[in-house]
Batch of 2 targets.
Target 1
Amino acid sequence: MKIVWEKNFIIFVVVFSLSIIVYIFSEAILRRNTLSAAKVDQQNQTTEYGRLVDWLPASWKLTIEYRAKYLDYQDKVEKARSTDAKVDAIFVFADYIKVKDKELSDKRMAEVALNPEYYKSRRAYKALAKLLLSDNPHKRLTIKEYHDYINNLTWEEDKYHAWSAGLTQLNILKVKTSVYLEYYQPLLDNPEILTNYARFYTDLGRRATALKNTEIADQVNKIQDQIKKAKLAINNNLLNAPLDFRRKYVEYKKDIETAKDADSRLSAIITLAGHMFNYKNSESIELFSQVYDKPEYTQCPNYYYLLSKMLVERRLPKRLNITVKQYQEYIATLQSDSTILHAWEAGLSQLVTLKQNAKTIVAYLKPLLDTPPKYKEYKILYEQLRDKAIAAEDQETADKASAILEKIESSSDIKYLERSEF
């Protein structure tokens, strides 16, 4: 009886263990619990899934983690909506499985080059660089083919990333110096006078010197001198911009082109200019220059919004930087009650966004003390004036603002602005 019991116990343990393993490996469970094994809940207790995985041998846990990520990356490929997002997801998936499933990895990488829609994608360079001079049985890209792809890219940041990815591939393959020179040739024919590219030219100059190619070495030195003098660069924010940054850029551009009147065109230009700030300030400056103080736009109802975005904006040159006094003088010329209110609000929003100090905000709002408020919507402006005056240790201004706030609350003569006025 004892022997039979021991056998039954062993069978039970084996069956129980296999059941748990099947449970853990279930795709449905993995999808729901992907990468959760190492996480803890709010009570600092390991999740049920984590506890199940924790007792397994290290090799098993690594297998489970690999499978979980595999399913997660595969799921992202399936759910990607845009072509760029899909191509990006395909690369991440293929790159992740390249060691354990090279055959499928090669197939998915090649798919990007073989599918015309994928090939045109902004994110195709990631996979195409891996195909450059590769041993992929499905598709091997020549240097010329890779150059053709780069030439067809629209955005400067994508071209830079493509050049970088291609160089990384050549370094991995440890190709001959002459191959590097072939790869860099377009950068000699059409120099990129940007500091981001300086490292490419430094590498090219070093390799040209190694081959005793003085002609190329001299050409590189001249280009490097131009780069130093120009002091131009692709902003790091632009290089690291989210995938939808350029999608929005194209949409805003289209809004400008299809605008039916000056007012809607002005709004679209302001939106695009704001979108480009900290990514490519030179473009923002150009956009503001196109509309500032131009007769076509100065009479637009939303011209105040343009000036508010230029208010004490240090990223703009002095000729486009609106001072607090200039903005106040502009508000004084407005006639519409709703426009006046919106102008004050827009200016305050700009100062808060730029994190201006309390004294600057007090100086901006102080003229409101000279004119009794006509509408209750001014309450928030006076509250800000009171609070900032206290922070700036200007008790007299704070007291005056408080008195007006009490009047806004108690007076029946001060009403809400009619909806039709907005």
Note: The chain has a mean pLDDT of 89.
Target 2
Amino acid sequence: MNQQIPPAISAADLYGVFQTNIAEAKQLYIGQNLVVSGIIAYIGPDMYGLPSIELSDSSTKRSQTLFVFRSGFPKDIVLERGMLITISGECIDVMPDGMVVIKKCEIEK
């Protein structure tokens, strides 16, 4: 496999890679630090009560990537649904529904 990780990727493209070939996507992305852009579909706690943001694309509005933050959201940034944002973090897993999970996240300014 000669693919390289792009310096930045959209939430939709990252989700699409996992939908196309999950085994290859896991090999390429799991454990890697990524920079991902997308439209905020959800802001709030994840299923474990941790601060999280879910990104989508503008056409489907379906959450494609889950970003979990270590210690909450930055106080100097106003976050709203529908806003375009870029977040970095470590890709750790993909959920059964295909949503990609990224932890140790920071919002790129």
Note: The chain has a mean pLDDT of 90.
